[in-house]
Design goal:
- This protein has 378 residues and is of the alpha+beta class.
- The protein has 2 domains: 7-174, Glutaredoxin; 186-374, C8orf32 fold, CATH 3.10.620.30.
- Helices cover 39% and strands 19% of the residues.
- It contains 12 helices and 15 strands.
- The strands form 4 sheets. It has a 6-stranded antiparallel sheet.
- The longest helix is centred in the middle third of the chain and has 30 residues, at 186-215.
- The termini are far apart.
- The model is unreliable at 1-29 and 350-357 (pLDDT under 50).
Length: 378
């Protein structure tokens, strides 16, 4: 014999059932549901707000450090987060009193999301799930469309092909959600430049913002040319010892714009982050260390350029502050590549790269990524 639930518990169960049924309908039909504009704080104390992702898909994935299925779907979430039009936010729940367990699970599972949030316990009235939707088991995910509305509820393991197919169908029906949005937190960059460099920094930001807003709607070749020309014309070439008072310093885009001077590394880095902000995929770009062709002496002067690969195996285009024209690599016979890298990986171009010690500079790149992220760049 079943014992009836007390009335308050029965009402609660009925409401949860309705929520689940409604979520299931959204999952099947893609009917949008007006979403709460969530505001979280990430594990690295960065604000994470739905309003910051206008014009992009946002997938909020609820997980727990002890959840096996949560680990299984990590590669699919990493793939989604690499798309220029999509960001993944991972919210850990039910992890106990120690947030260290979240960081350890992130590292062991190789999670590469846009943001990680400690969401507390599901029973906590202040839990992060209260700003999104019910989480009855792990993993549970919610997909927001580029207009900021929840269009898919995903209980259990996420299936990447289904998500990608849904996005394609959405674009076919709606077209672009709105004018393209800059993939960077420009307010953070503006604040940093104003605080550190005063009126000069404010003017530098205004010029950069004007250029990027004009470039957003351009075809890719024109975006490349606009960014390449902006930095080559605006920034004065110099040496780190003269600019920064040290032998080697990799400037962030904010530092480069604020000071107005840089070496080849700084030009290439500034162009890379600006093009990523203009929604060009980082996997198609590489920062390339080069040496003069025919020069093999250890310690010979090196230079850095930015390479754009339109497709795999195609001759890349080279963006170089020493050459105003963007030329295919096959026409840059004066350069010999040593090794290349981006925010996703490293590629050795010659067998001598490791022995020459060039890859040791990548520790500096990790620090540059961290500092650029604090300025609003991804």
């Amino acid at each position: 014999m079943q014992v009836p639930l007390p009335l308050p518990r029965l009402a609660l169960a009925f409401c949860l059932l309705l929520l689940a049924l409604a979520a299931g309908m959204r999952q099947g039909t893609g009917e949008p549901v007006k979403a709460v504009s969530f505001a979280f704080t990430s594990l690295d104390d960065r604000p994470v707000r739905l309003a910051d992702y206008q014009g992009k898909w946002v997938l909020v994935s609820f997980w727990a450090p002890w959840c096996p299925l949560c680990k299984v779907q990590v590669p699919s979430l990493n793939t989604l987060n690499q798309r220029s039009d999509t960001r993944v936010i991972g919210i850990a729940l039910d992890y106990g009193a120690d947030e260290g367990s979240i960081r350890q699970a992130i590292r062991l599972a190789n999670m590469r999301f846009d943001a990680f949030v400690a969401g507390g316990s599901r029973r906590d009235p202040n839990s992060a799930q209260r700003q999104v939707g019910p989480v009855d088991f792990f993993p549970t995910s919610y997909l927001y469309d580029p207009q900021g509305e929840i269009v898919m509820f995903i209980p259990g393991q996420l299936r990447l092909p289904r998500i990608l197919s849904f996005m394609d169908n959405w674009y076919a029906e709606h077209g672009p959600a709105r004018a393209p949005m800059l993939a960077a937190r420009s307010d953070d960059l503006a604040g940093m430049l104003k605080r550190r460099y005063g009126d000069r920094g404010g003017q530098a930001f205004a010029d950069w913002k004007r250029m990027t807003e004009a470039a957003l709607a351009l075809p890719i070749p024109d975006r490349l040319a606009r960014v390449n020309d902006f930095f080559n014309r605006r920034i004065q070439a110099g040496q780190d010892s003269q600019i920064w008072g040290r032998e080697d310093h990799w400037a962030t885009p904010g530092e480069l714009l604020g000071v107005g001077k840089g070496d080849g590394e700084d030009f290439a880095i500034g162009k890379y982050f600006t093009l990523v902000a203009l929604n060009l995929p980082p996997e198609k770009m590489r920062l390339v260390y080069v040496k003069p062709r025919g020069e093999s002496r250890p310690g010979a002067q090196v230079h850095m350029v930015l390479a754009w690969y339109e497709s795999a195996g195609q001759d890349p285009l080279i963006l170089d502050n020493r050459e105003p024209a963007i030329l295919p690599a096959s026409r840059r016979t004066d350069l010999r590549p040593v090794f290349s890298f981006n925010s996703l990986g490293v590629w050795e171009e010659t067998a001598a790269a490791a022995s020459a010690g060039e890859s040791g500079r990548l520790a500096v790149w990790e620090d540059t990524l961290r500092r650029a992220k604090a300025e609003g760049f991804e």
